[in-house]
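step 3/5: co-fold with flavin mononucleotide
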Amino acid sequence: MNITKMNGPVYRLGVNINEKGYLFEGLWPVPNGVSINSYLVMGEKKALIDMTQETCTLMDSLAQQIEQAGISPDQLDYIIVNHMEPDHSGMLRDFAKTNKKARFICSEKAVPLLDQFCSIPADRVDSVKDGDTLDLGGGQILTFYMVPNVHWPETMATYLESEKILFSCDAFGSYGTVEDAVFDDQLSEERAVFYEEEALRYYANIVATFSLFVDKAIKKIADLEIKVIAPSHGIVWRKEPQRIINDYKRYASYANGPAEPEVCLVWASMYGNTEKAVAPLIRGIKKEGLDVKVFRVPQDDLGHILAASWRAAGLVLAMPTYEYKMFPPMAQVVEDLMIKKVKNKKVLRVGSFGWVGGAEKDFRTRTEKAGWDIMDSVEFQGCPNEENLAQVEEAAGELARRIKEFTA
Ligand SMILES: Cc1cc2nc3c(=O)[nH]c(=O)nc-3n(C[C@H](O)[C@H](O)[C@H](O)COP(=O)(O)O)c2cc1C
Ligand SMILES: [Fe+2]
Ligand SMILES: [Fe+2]
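step 4/5: write tokens
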């Protein structure tokens, strides 16, 4: 990878993870890969903002990129540790062994984590508070803003006054590898939309639970003059920094208000009985003019289901009864929707059962505290008959009408 000169004495460095089958956070499929970005600010003192994961290839690549800027990693004076999650901090352990002079700058909450995760003792660390500054000389002053829980409690963002760049770490990040086109102004509109879609999935998978804090962080930076958003995943937004800020604002708003007038339909079926309800469900929704994204579990992955669920104001969950409970992969979906605090949804459940059912009770118990507006379920024994299917279609239509009213 080559480094990219940004405005002023600033470089964007980055590595891509795009191995087939790689799971981000050990959990989320990233079919389009993911980038981990660092930024080098060359004042009289040299500061590197965020590092990379602890694998030899990634660490070697980052070290080579630092050298492309004309210095060796041993010449770095400061490492700005915005966030201690190992995708950005894994390299710190090795780095601290060879560069003995660098000071590590982080929030107060990150100080013990540097020791526990990377064996960097507190005497090598300078903690900063909201609004503290670090003068690198040559007119380059960094200011630190605490953005707790975006994504961990210790997370902060760093602002370079001279160039009005906000190094926002996970905030405003997206999945998707970054190749030669690093800036939004180098992208076609289609490619920019690609990164926005990747940002939504990243948001739903990684930060959705902390939407309240995302909202707070956005309010905190509202008075800063921002010309460039430089996140630690995805592209750099300098043509329209407000575009990704507004995207994140909208994603955060789905946590406590209506999302978009569309439906995410997730279904599961062992022997095809519940499956027969899928077509009438889609028909009922589409007749009302709403779009519907359809997933099947366990075949489709949770990362994509979460993104579609986060954006849609309506959910349809269709599954049979299995051993007196919901079909297990669907129970997992519901569980994850609860963990990610997917709230304020209009919801319909349908499904088949063999003798006394049980999925319905399981579903109601698990979603008791979800804050969902759940319609009466449509259940049928064994194979659905014409009347059952008509009922399903009518219920889907009713759901769509409720969604339209809710999002109007
Ligand atoms: C492993 C297994 C466990 C089941 N457990 C229950 C159950 O506890 N209660 C019930 O009413 N039906 C149970 N059933 C019956 C299914 O719910 C029924 O066959 C249903 O029509 C399956 O729908 P599907 O074709 O969409 O998978 C079970 C079926 C299987 C294969
Ligand atoms: Fe993170
Ligand atoms: Fe990250």
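step 5/5: annotate
The chain is about 35% helix and 25% strand.
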